[in-house]
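Feature request, filed as a ticket because there's no other form

It would be nice if the structure record came with a short human-readable summary line next to the tokens. Right now we just get the raw output. Example of a typical job, pasted below so the devs can see what we mean:
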Amino acid sequence: MVELLLAAVISVLIIGAVVLFPWDKHSSYLQAIPPLAFFAVIPFLRQAEGGAGSGYGLLALLPILWLALYGTRFQLTLAIATLITVFAVPIVMLGEPRYPPTEWRRVLIWASLGPLIGFTVQRLVTEIRRLVARLNEVARLDALTGMPNRRAWDEELTRELSRAQRSGKPVSVAVLDLDNFMAFNDVNGHRAGDQFLKDVAAACDEQIKDIDLIARYGDDEFALLLTDCALDEAHAVVERVRRRALEDQTCSVGLACWDRSETAEELVTRANNMLDEVSKAKADRAALVKLGFYGQVAR
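Raw output as currently delivered:
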């Protein structure tokens, strides 16, 4: 009865610690304490139920699986060593009749099953995480150009505006639309059109800073995220991209600088509105929106 009470107390303490303690704010080594501490419950439960014949020994798989799923390889190795110790110590310290020498066979079985189960599960989890990370990466890339796609653009723009809000640095956005691209496709074929888009994306990427971002925003549209870049500097970047990357191909550009109050969607909408005006004018130039100190709009 005393053993069951001790096991219950330890279990309650472990569960309370898991629920109340902010483990996610501490190192992975501290996070391994609850599953390792659970091993202390098993000897008391086995002793209360008659020793070696108790079925509570199977509970030793719980911390093994826990650390296989969420722990490091070192933590899992430590758990396996603790598992073997939990089954070996009673044989040495208490002995017969509850823990006869034949129990060493059980220790050998656990010494084999523990690593087999633990490391197999951990390897599968690692592979699944790798595949998920790869799928997430692929889901954020445009299949044709290899550049970030609309989803990646939306995520990165939101993050960049949050960073700019804290740092106070300017952020500009440009949307480039290739003029008469459908006609280019009709004359040269879709294969040539695809290659042209690849070439344009690669050339544009060479003209911007490493911390900036270019994404394929639509069929024949590219979006530029220019960090730490005010409107005048952004205009110079766009002109450089237009001259050096597009060469003979003309484009229409909508350009806007974040006013520090609008959302990411509103900022892009403003750049798109400028693009629409430029496209209607059939001009190959950048449309500028200059925001004054109080937010008045002037062009």
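Something like this underneath would help us a lot:
The chain has a mean pLDDT of 84.
The beta strands are 171-178, 213-216, 221-227, 251-257, 286-287, 290-291, 297-298.
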